[in-house]
Q: What sequence folds into this?
């Protein structure tokens, strides 16, 4: 795993350090920017659950604002799916260069036109309410996993510690197949491995796990 205090690129540090440091998301978001910048090309970012309140860095992290800045800086496109008309309206105001789509996240991911072009997938579509939320995020990932390219960055917000949070079932499903997080904190991050198992194989591995 990366160090607990990640040394971000100067441009990212200048733009977001003050806002993000108090949210416990700084380390993860700085890592994400650095890894995407290393591609040296336009990037594809897909998010579920968009920013819903200006300046809500401690709450939802205003992630759509961050991803839109990254896409503007590096080149590329951000698509964010959210079922709330009010949240979509706010996100369009905060991040006018992002493609904000008012749609159920699982349907959105299932119909996304180029899942093999996603470099970074950020899952944060439901307020945490226990297992239903964690299962929803598992289903989101399962919708696109087989079409993601090796190396794709996958992140889930709201790790509450003690094995609880939106990442709970994704952590188990991937971990049983030997895919461990590269970043652990408020935001948990994985990289899709080269020649990794299919979603169906991972589901079978979990069903057979003792």
A:
């Amino acid at each position: 795993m990366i160090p607990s205090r990640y040394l971000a690129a100067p441009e990212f540090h200048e733009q977001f350090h003050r806002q993000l440091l108090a949210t416990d998301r700084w380390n993860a978001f700085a890592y994400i920017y650095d890894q995407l910048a290393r591609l040296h090309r336009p990037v594809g970012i897909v998010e579920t659950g968009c920013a819903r309140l200006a300046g809500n860095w401690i709450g939802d992290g205003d992630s759509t604002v961050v991803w839109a800045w990254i896409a503007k800086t590096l080149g590329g496109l951000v698509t964010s799916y959210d079922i709330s008309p009010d949240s979509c309206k706010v996100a369009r105001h905060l991040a006018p260069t992002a493609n904000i789509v008012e749609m159920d996240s699982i349907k959105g991911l299932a119909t996304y036109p180029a899942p093999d072009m996603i470099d970074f997938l950020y899952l944060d579509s439901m307020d945490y309410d226990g297992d239903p939320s964690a299962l929803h995020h598992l289903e989101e990932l399962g919708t696109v996993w087989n079409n993601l390219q090796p190396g794709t960055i996958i992140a889930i917000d709201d790790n509450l510690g003690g094995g609880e949070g939106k990442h709970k079932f994704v952590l188990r499903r991937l971990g049983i197949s030997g895919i461990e997080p590269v970043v652990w904190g408020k935001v948990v991050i994985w990289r899709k491995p080269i020649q990794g198992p299919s979603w169906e194989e991972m589901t079978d591995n979990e069903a057979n796990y003792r």
